[in-house]
Amino acid sequence: MNVVLDTNVLVSALWSPGRKPGAIVSAAIAGRFNLCYDFRIVEEYRRVLRYPKFRFQKWEVSALLEPLLKQGFSVVAPPITDMPFTDESDRKFYEVARYCHAPLVTGNGQHFPRDEIVLTVAEFYERYM
Q1: What is the pTM of this model?
Q2: Which domains occur in the chain, in start order?
Q3: Is the model's pLDDT at 108 over the cut of 90?
Q4: What CA–CA distance (Å, rounded) separates 109 from 104?
């Protein structure tokens, strides 16, 4: 099964590895889910996880991203321009999820259109873990 993970899921996984976001990320690394991403998503993962406010060590970010990206696959999704977003930086996640026929797992569903593919961490965990 394909899945797209919003950046806030990765942040939560690093903060609290024993909670639901950490379990979802671990399952993706283990190959239970195929992580779908594009270059824009990877760029955001790397940029956000390096924010000084998070205080993640470089090795922690690498230990998370390297196996996650290796296990997943990169795509080039067509743009979706006929849908409004409260935060335009979230559009890329939705585009990739639609293209890959994948649930989009997020900690902030208000940033995305109402759509059955957009799931909170708790919803995804309940359905698929």
Answers
A1: 0.96
A2: 2-128 (3.40.50.1010)
A3: no
A4: 9
